Amino acid sequence: MRNRDKAKEKEYNKRYYQEHREQAHCYYEANREQSRKQSHHYRETHPEQVREYQKHYQREHREQLLKQRCLWYQANREKIREYNKHYHQEHRIQARCYRKANRERERENLRRWRKANPEQHREHCRRRHAKLVSVIHNLTVKEWQHIKEIYDHRCAYCGEKKKKLTQDHVVPISKGGSHTISNVVPACQSCNSRKGTGEAPAFQRILILALEGN
User: Fold this and answer.
1) Which domain, by its residues, includes 155?
2) Which end of the chain is less packed: N or C, by CB atoms within 10 Å?
3) Count of domains for the chain
């Protein structure tokens, strides 16, 4: 009986708001500060009810919310990228510690993303391949083995010995770097991902010059 009364009350409130939407909007505009204070006070004193309402609303309006988020992202893509870049620079150490502590979880998330988004993953691989094709690309398997031997099969950045080392471009391909013996160093996956398209440490260039002489 109580649930029926609640359902009736909810339906009545919904209908009343729809019929008096304009008046409600005018009242809010005229009493914006007071309305915000009341809303803030309610959220602080009724956290469980607020969480439950938010969960219910998200379930009921899932498609609408996804569409709004997509539109908002498309309209603010550059702003989001700039914010993420700035945030990453400001919290680089915390991010590094988190990835190190949650390495398996990060890998699992990446695997799940690739499985759930095969087209995006293939497109990323295609773009990567196209970039490689468009630059000087003459690193051989023998040269790659030679590079790893020079570094004693260690990551060029953290110095850790790894069974699996990735090829990292000191000058990123996206910034005009080449896929040659003079621009490739061994790096563990975490250091490679962390460096991204950023510049390598200054000492790295010295090591490359030494490598070219061998």
Assistant:
1) 139-214
2) N
3) 2
